[in-house]
Each structure stands twice: as structure tokens, then as C-alpha cells.
Structures
1.
Amino acid sequence: MASTLITVAPTGAEADKAAVPALPVTLDELVGTAKECEAAGAAVIHVHIRDEAARPTLDRGRLTATVAALREGTDLIVQLSTGGAVTDSFANRLAVLDAAPDACSLTCGTVNFGADVFSNPWGFIKELYQLTQERQVVPEFELFDLGQVATLHRLLGELGPPAGGHVHCDLVMGVPGGMPGDVPTLAAAVTALPDGATWSATGIGRTTLAVLFGALAAGGHLRVGMEDTLSFARGRPVARNAELVERAAELARLAQRPPMRPAEARAFLGIPGRPA
Ligand code: KMH
Ligand code: ZN
């Protein structure tokens, strides 16, 4: 039976801990969340970290310690964000790979991001991609609009296949400024992907459920978490990341595509197993 890759994105760079107390921001909170989400069916964790004041940071020491702690506490594939926060420099975003994660995000273009701009010019995309190839860190191609799918084709055409040999994408839908989180747009994006690519999708905010159901129906994989939505239902805040994973896993089982476990996900994504 085919299975469903579930990625949890528990923190992000945007939500404010003071306003969202359930957001995991310390290392202990992150590892505790990761364990619960793994038990609930996640196989990958997409990681943003915070500093002692709960502000987003790309501090190298903290990132390295985070990778080690997640490996110690879970079998999850550790995917560090190279997107960071909209205020992070390109140099700091490239340096994320110094923490030697299993995987990283790699966004394929610039996009309006609410009132901000999430900047990913072609030169930066190429440099980051080449670094993933050199360091053998498996990239997940983050696609916020259809133009970014065209850039992914250009990238693969110029620089060849990624570390691990397999192209896996994540459609990030419903960002104010990016592609809408609806089924016609999902279908258009999936149709445009490179041959042989696999994909997950996530819907930001109110688009979460439409994208989740659409992705399952179209044979895709799922990303959920408090980076992407802070409401479980109308008027009901998310209490913990694991409830979003539990819901995704339940729907995946109903779709006859149960959650993929981390070892299967490693083979699927071309990520080597951990040394014993
Ligand atoms: N925080 C956003 C500006 C990624 O993680 O690679 C970018 C983002 C994408 O979250
Ligand atoms: Zn992210």
C-alpha cells in the first residue's frame, strides 16, 4: 500500500511566543514536540529555531545543538530551514548547512510574504543548491508560486540532480503574495512539476484543510504544523503540534495511505540511514 510522508513544521519564524504560548521555541520544547509528532506519524521535521528571547535565529551553535538533540531524541529526518526569517542575510542562510542536517529547504524564487518580501534571487538559489550538492544535504524544493516551478526546472537543467538523486518538492500555498491554497491551483502546480518528482503540500492559515484534502486526493504528501497554521478549527487555537499531525495521519489512513515511518522516508527521499 502506498504511504504518506508527513512533515511537521512546528515553529516557523513568524509567530510570536508571547501571543502563542503553545509554540515550541526552546530546545526542550522542540525535542518534546518532535517526539510527540513522531509518535503521531511524522517522519520529517522542518526546523526553525529561536534565541533565548524567542526571536528567530540562525545561530550556528544553536543549529548544531538542535540537529544533535533531535537525532538523539527521535528518528525523524532533520530538515533545517534555509529560508529563516525575512530579515536573515543570504550569508547566514547559506551557513545553515554548516550544522550538517539530513535535509534543508530550498525556496525557488522571491515572493511577497504578507507585508514583507521573502527574497530568493537566482544567484542565491544556485549558490545554495550547489552547496547542498557539495555537502550532500538533500534539498526539499519549496514552491510558493507557479513561477518558482519554472525556476526549479531551470535549476535542475543547469546544475543536475540533487544530493540523493530524487526531487521532492513542497507546495507552500496560501501565503499572502504567493499562490492561493485551492484545488485548481494545486492541480496546476502538480502538473507543472518535473517528471518523477514527488511532492508534499501545505496550506497556510485558512487554506490548511482544503490543501490537505486536495493533496491526499491527488496522491501527494503532507506538511502540517504551527509554522503554517495556528487554528485547529474556527475559534479554536492549535493546542500542540501533535494534534495537527494526528489529524493528518488519521486522514491519510482513511485515504488508505498510512503515514510513512522515518526509515521508509529516508529511502523515499534518498537520505542515507544514520550510522548505528
Ligand atoms: N519564514 C519564511 C520567510 C523556509 O523555511 O525555507 C521562509 C520559510 C521558508 O519559512
Ligand atoms: Zn519554514
2.
Amino acid sequence: MRLEKYISDSGIASRRAVKRAIHEGHVTVNGHQITIPGHPIDPETDDIEYQGNKVEPLTEFIYLMLNKPPGYLTTRHDERGRPIVMDLLTDLPQSIYPVGRLDFETEGLLLFTNDGNFAYKMMHPSHEIEKAYLVWVNGIPSKRALERLRNGIAISGGTTAPAKIKQLDAKTTSQLSTNRNVRNTAKIAKYRVIIHEGKKRQVRLMFKAVGYRVIRLKRVRVGSLRLGKLPQGQYRYLTPAEVEKLHT
Ligand code: URA
């Protein structure tokens, strides 16, 4: 690649300004001053300085969403070799990281990027980005319990902000026990819960605080972005329009 193209592609200055700077002796390649534009360089191995500052290639921002299956850690490395969400992302042009986290057993929409400003905005509580979850609960919480969750409840990370909670289903399931001809019944309720905070294990702890155990948890929306029909374990890049909408 030509020296002036590499420098101007990095976003420092226009091609013309870079050529002038080269003529004026403000550019070095591996410590040697280069004064003639057109000098060939290898972006992988050459060390290029423009007016005394190292030129870094412009990184393209990447945004994608994964439908995280349960049983994966939201981390970039795990010393104990457990399954991690990065195992599910292949053929990435650049290194990226998860935006926030979902618990090991939580499934659903998980964003990834290499854009620090975007990640900060999505995670910072002051931006109050809504997150919607489908929540399956062992038992059927009373109206009063749900009101306590809606109003905000004390959990280990502090008191939660008001939440939106809608009951989607409540049923009694009946199963034949494995070793005897005994029928076990279980009550399971399903809710849509919308919160805009990200306290650790927040949804699980909210239901625990009113005496119920979350048996399945799936995030289906972050801000304007919906998980849709993305199959479990698969990922896709966000469209520019989706990124733009999340930014605003
Ligand atoms: N709330 C939880 O309890 N767990 C998650 O992974 C996300 C929200």
C-alpha cells in the first residue's frame, strides 16, 4: 500500500495534506524519514509515524447480536475452560467484546461491538435503555408480589427501579413421576418483564425477593432492537439503521 493512502485512510488528514507532510519531512517509516510520496509500506509490519505520532489503522466498528443459549459464560476468556459466548462467534474480522452480560443460564439477545462509546451508552444506567425479558417462574406469584416488583424491591445490589410486568401465561403442568405411578403437578407462570437497569442477576433476584425461583430467563429486546427469529446459538450483524436507532 502507498504510504500516503495508509495515513489518510487512518483518518488523520486528507491525502493531499499527507503528501505535503511527506515532502516536508514529517513522516517516518520504521524510524527513517520518507520524503517522496508513493513509498510502499506493509501495514502489518511497518511502524509509521506522522508528525511524531504513531499512525494506527482506522478500525471499522462492528455491531452484532447473538441469541445466547443457556450454559455459556459471558466473557472473552475462561481459565477453567467452560463454554464462553466467544466460542459461538466465528469468522470475525476484528476482535469484539460483549456489551454487558447475561448469566450463565440466561438466554437471548446479547450485543457485541468494538465501539467503546456505543458499549458505554448501552450499559450506562443514566441512558435508561429498556431491556425486555421473558421470565418463567416456579409457582404463580400473587398480585401483591407482582406489585412489589413493579414498584421496586430491595435486592443485594440495591433497590430496583420500577419495572413493567405483564403476565403472559399461568398453568399447572402434570407429570408422571419416574419411578412410581405418581402424578406430580407444578405451577409455572410466564411474564414479560421490562427493566432499564443492569444489576447483577437482577430479574432472578427480584423474583427471589418475593419467594419465587426463575426457572428460565430469556432476553428478547434491548432498546429498539428485538431478538426476533434469530435461532439459538446464531448471530447476525446489525444493520446501519439498527445501529443508528440504538445510538439515538
Ligand atoms: N437478570 C438476570 O437475573 N440475569 C440476567 O442474565 C439478566 C437479567
